[in-house]
Structures are given as structure tokens and as C-alpha cells.
Amino acid sequence: MMAGALKRLVEGSEFSTGWIFFIDAEGQHQLVSDYHLPQALERNSCQYMTEGPCWCVSRYHQGKLTKASNIITCSRIVKANRKFPAETEGITHHATVPLQSGLEKFGLLNVATPDKETYSPEELDLLESVAFQIGSAIKRIVLTEKEREIALTNERNRLARDLHDSVNQMLFSLKLTAHAAGAQAEDERARIAFSIIEETSQNAVNEMRALIWQLKPIGLEEGLAQAIRQYAQVLGLKITVHVEGLVQFDNKEETTIFRIVQEALNNIRKHAETEEAVISISSERIMIEDRGKGFIVTSATQLPTHGIGNMQQRAESIGGKLKIASSEEGTTIQLQLKG
Which of 269, 274, 264, 268 is nearest to 312 (CA)? Predict the structure, then answer.
């Protein structure tokens, strides 16, 4: 969407290039779209556009950039011009405007024209109009994504209820029936067969309970630590949970952290050949440690399970970083949280 809007803006005006920054609450910017950047600014994977501070991003973060403005000196363009003077295509200055919808801000729209230092009020008005449309579109996308997440959560909850009320109950009944039949059987082979059916049914019940937990986290209303303890009990793991200081997460962070720990515990149960783990929770990081057989990670393609890739994606979704250290003496997974 943004790439198309940027392309139409540049091609339908006297601007020759444009780029969009998303800026988070900490003032960290991300280049999310660009069109016809000079080669100097594209060098080294847009290094000058992605690294370091600049005036417009700083003013935006400070709440002092509220309308379309001329930027007298852009440190990014200046650095690129000094390093690659023959590749700037005459770009020395740019105009900027915040992307926002109501009171909600998303980032900056920047445009430039060769050999031009200031932009007319008419050009700045055009920039304001386009920025308003892009900001409104971003807001709609954000709302749509939230609606999608709500719908997905509701569907997961429905599936969890259906599995619990139907399949889980049938498996439990099968287990009880096999146990009763085995107790009454006189033939040894029949008793062994019923015992196998009972054991298999119990394993299936345990797997079903774990699946229901994955669809719908149970116990989070009682706190993250308690939910982790309950899930470990479902898996048959013995864990120790340490909580350091006063820890408070918002709903998205808490659910995401639980999902990451959940996947780590799944991996311990399936691969580590141990039933014990230690989990440390603080406002800065989450640590999951076990003394199982471990594994060696030399590249993303050699991760032992697809689940670890999902854990990394979940960590990134809340601005965190996942670090994994594993050897024959065990595995440590650290979720470093932002802030």
C-alpha cells in the first residue's frame, strides 16, 4: 500500500524521490518504503537511511514536528553526498510531514527534488494531503489486523472448547472402559491388550490437553508464572520458576511470552531427555534453562524444530530478541525484552 502511494505521489508531482519512516515509541525509526532513491542513499542496503539519528526523526519523537516542513539540513543526505558526491542525483534537501490519524502517529513521509532547497506552500499542502490519506490507510490496516487477531483468538477458543467437550471426553471414556475391561478379563493376552489401550488412551488425553493449552492459554488470568507452572504440569515436567522483582506486562506481551515459554517446554519434553527446567522471569528478560542433551545450532536451517523459528518471530513481534545457547550439558533460551 505505502509503496504504491509513494510511487503515485512522486510520479504525479515534481518530486523525484520519496521514502517513509515508521518510528516507534522510543524514537527508533525503520525505513519501510522508498521510491527512486539516489544511488548514494541506496548504498550498503540504504545504510545512510537506516543508521543513526537525524533532525526530522528527532523532532518527530519530541512532538515538535506537526506539519509539512522544509528540512534545511539533512544529516543523512549530507553524509551520502560527502561519500558519493557523483551519485546523489542533485538531491541536497528534502521536505517532511508526519504520518498520523487523529492523535495516533506512525512515522514520516519524506520527498525530495534535484537541486531544490525549499518547497512551496502548495507543494507542502500536497504533501499534507497525501500524508493524511496514508495515515488514514495505516490506521485502517491496524484496526483490521486487530479485528483479525480477535477473530483468530475467538476461533482458537471455540476449537479448544470443542476438543475438550468432545474428543477429550471420548478419549477419557475409552481409557476408563479399557481399565475396567482389563480388570475383568481372565485371559492374559486380553489383559495386556486392554492395558495397552488404556496407556495409549492416557497418552492421547495428555496430548489433547497440551493441544488445548496451545489453542487457549489457561491460567493467564492468575499470572504468567502460574500459567507456566500449570502447563508444565500438563506436560509432566518438573520446573522451578523464579520471578525477580515486580513484573508487569501488557496483554499482548504476556500472551506472547507465555507462547514462547510454552514452545520451549514442548521442546524440552520432546527432545531434551530431561523432565526438569528452571525458568527466570524479570521485566528485562525471560530465561528457560534445562540440563538435557542439547543440540548444536550453526544456522537457522539447522534448528531442531520449526517451533524455535516461531519463537524467534514471536520475540520480534514484541520488540524482543531470542538467544539460544546449547551444548551437551543443556540448553539456555533467553528472551531479551526491549526497554
Answer: 264
Domain limits at 151? 143-216
Please report, for residues 136, 163, 241, the alpha-carbon distance to residue 213 in angstroms, rounded to integers and kept in the order given: 37, 11, 19
Taking only Cα atoms into account, the Rg of the chain, rounded to an integer number of angstroms, comes to: 28
Cα dihedral across residues 199, 202, 208, 211: positive or negative: negative
Structural domain contains residue 130: no
Examine the domain organization and report whether 183 and 228 are in the same domain.
Answer: no
What's the grid cell of residue 154?
475467538
Angle (deg, nearest 10), helices 2-11 and 121-162: 160
Contact 175, 207 (CB under 8 A): no
Quick one: cell of 137? 490507510
3-class DSSP state of 234: helix
Please name the residues in contact with 50: beta carbons below 8 A apart, sequence gap of 6 or more: 30, 31
pLDDT tens over the chain, length 339 residues = 778 888 999 888 889 999 999 998 888 899 999 999 999 999 988 988 988 888 899 999 999 999 999 987 889 999 998 999 999 899 999 999 999 888 888 999 999 999 999 999 999 999 999 999 998 988 888 788 778 877 877 787 788 788 878 888 888 899 999 999 999 988 999 999 999 999 999 888 888 877 777 777 767 778 899 999 988 988 889 999 999 988 888 888 898 999 999 999 988 988 889 999 999 999 999 999 999 988 765 444 444 455 777 888 889 889 899 999 988 889 999 999 975
Q: Report residue 330 as a C-alpha cell.
A: 543443556
**In a domain? residue 126:** no
Residue at which a domain ends, from 177, 194, 216: 216
Tell me how many domains the chain contains.
3
For cell 528472551, what's the residue? Answer: 335
pTM over cut 0.70: no
